[in-house]
UniProtKB/TrEMBL annotation:
Entry protein name: L-lactate dehydrogenase (Cytochrome)
InterPro entries in the cross-refs: Aldolase_TIM, Alpha-hydoxy_acid_DH_FMN, FMN-dep_DH, FMN_HAD, FMN_hydac_DH_AS
Top-rank EC class of the record's enzyme: oxidoreductase
Similarity-based family: Belongs to the FMN-dependent alpha-hydroxy acid dehydrogenase family.
Gene3D superfamilies attached to this UniProt entry: Aldolase class I (3.20.20.70)
Residues in FMN hydroxy acid dehydrogenase domain copies: 1-381
């Protein structure tokens, strides 16, 4: 196994192994990609305050997210088409998360279904649902999540309309990939990917195909997607979803304090401050800049998580110091998954944990639950 010391190592291997179409799908943001870039670079604006001669023995990164024990305040974010980055990718990621003691969140738009993941993993996982018009389909998704013993539902509220990613259009992204001379040539150069994909037994888009009205095979999926996302979504509709699911509920995709307060009012257990990894509103603030005003608005009314741009344990530490109860990572674990399946996801988690544990200690803290804004130097006008 190559020596992995940072997330960038996994990204380099990932890029070599996965067809360009799927690498680009992950490694891009909407339109000019300004927000996609800011998500990462704005973390560098925050500096950590070093302390010395503090007893650093007996460190603890374990805490809770939505009342569930986690070995560190990190969850794996829902990522569509994960099973195209590696065969059975959702199962590999869920297994790695379970073994590390952090939550895995399955996307509605996954390749492996809720049932595939439940049958092939031990730890409970979370299910992300998009806000769709079809009530029966929504109720069935929640019922399937209940039957699979999912320990939380996550409603993503920032995708009523799809932000445009130029590369996906130019690459003619589709799953399964369209077989053109160019795409075949690209896949042939990615031998490990091709061999793995031949071995997969899963049905494409297992949460949808065979479950949504009129979607009996993947070819009808793009029409379904275009017609099913609910552009008329409002907070009353989100209240209806709250009634369909009686377990812990997380609302993902909040960037404004007013929306955070609305989420408190619908009875969510947590929100995720997220701009979808820079894939939706290009020009939006980075999520780390959006965090503090949201924390100040909601106070103790709701648990706040953050994602978008987290690439290291230092980033997790900074977000926790700003007040987040935990971070979700997307691309950071997808790089590992595409590079080497479950082992790569475990490596991503190991790297982030080590960075978090060491940096926390060098800031003079030994328990993640005692980390606060005092360890940060925040530039004027940051938020
Ligand atoms: C996503 N994200 C996402 N979110 C969601 O709620 N449902 C989904 O199906 C997807 N799909 C998806 C695909 C890909 C390729 C990416 C990169 C992201 C957003 C994801 O959950 C998370 O918000 C971001 O990935 C966080 O940003 P970073 O950590 O990737 O920078």
């Amino acid at each position: 196994m190559p020596t992995i010391t940072e997330i960038e190592d996994l990204k380099r291997i990932y890029k070599r192994r996965v067809p360009k179409m799927f690498y680009d799908y992950c490694e891009s943001g909407s339109w000019t990609e300004q927000t996609f870039r800011d998500n990462v670079s704005d973390f560098n604006e925050l500096r950590l305050r070093q302390r010395v001669a503090v007893d650093m023995t007996g460190r603890k990164t374990a805490t809770q997210m939505i009342g569930q024990d986690v070995s560190m305040p990190v969850a794996l974010a829902p990522v569509g088409l994960t099973g195209m980055q590696h065969a059975d990718g959702e199962i590999h990621a869920a297994r790695a998360a379970g073994k590390f003691g952090v939550p895995y969140c399955l996307s509605t738009m996954s390749i492996c279904s809720i049932e595939d993941v439940a049958e092939n993993t031990d730890a409970p996982f979370w299910l992300q649902v998009y806000t769709l018009k079809d009530d029966d389909f929504m109720q069935r998704l929640f019922d399937r999540a209940k039957a699979a013993k999912c320990s939380a539902a996550v409603i993503t509220v920032d995708l009523q309309l799809l932000g445009q990613r130029h590369k996906d259009i130019k690459n003619g992204l589709s799953a399964p990939p369209k077989l053109t001379p160019k795409s075949v040539a690209n896949m042939m150069t990615k031998v490990p990917w091709g061999l793995e994909m031949l071995q997969t037994k899963r049905r494409f888009f297992g949460n949808i195909v065979g479950h949504a009205k009129g979607v009996d095979d993947p070819s009808s999926l793009s029409t379904w997607t275009a017609e099913s996302f609910d552009q008329a979504l409002d907070w009353d509709r989100i209240r209806q979803f709250r009634k369909m699911w009686d377990g812990p509920l997380i609302i993902k995709g909040i960037m404004d304090p007013r929306d955070a307060l609305e989420a408190c009012n619908v009875g969510a257990d947590a929100i995720v401050v997220s701009n979808h990894g820079g894939r939706q509103l290009d020009g939006a603030l980075s999520s780390i800049r959006a965090l503090a005003p949201i924390m100040d608005a909601v106070g103790d009314r709701i648990e706040v998580h953050l994602d978008s741009g987290v690439r290291s344990g230092q980033d997790v530490l900074k977000a926790v110091a700003m007040g987040a109860k935990g971070c979700w990572i997307g691309r950071a674990y997808i790089y590992g998954l595409g590079a080497m399946g479950e082992t790569g996801v475990s490596e991503a988690l190991r790297v982030i944990h080590k960075e978090l544990d060491t940096s926390m200690a060098l800031c003079g803290r030994t328990d993640i639950e005692t980390v606060d804004r005092d360890i940060l130097m925040i530039p004027k006008g940051f938020s």
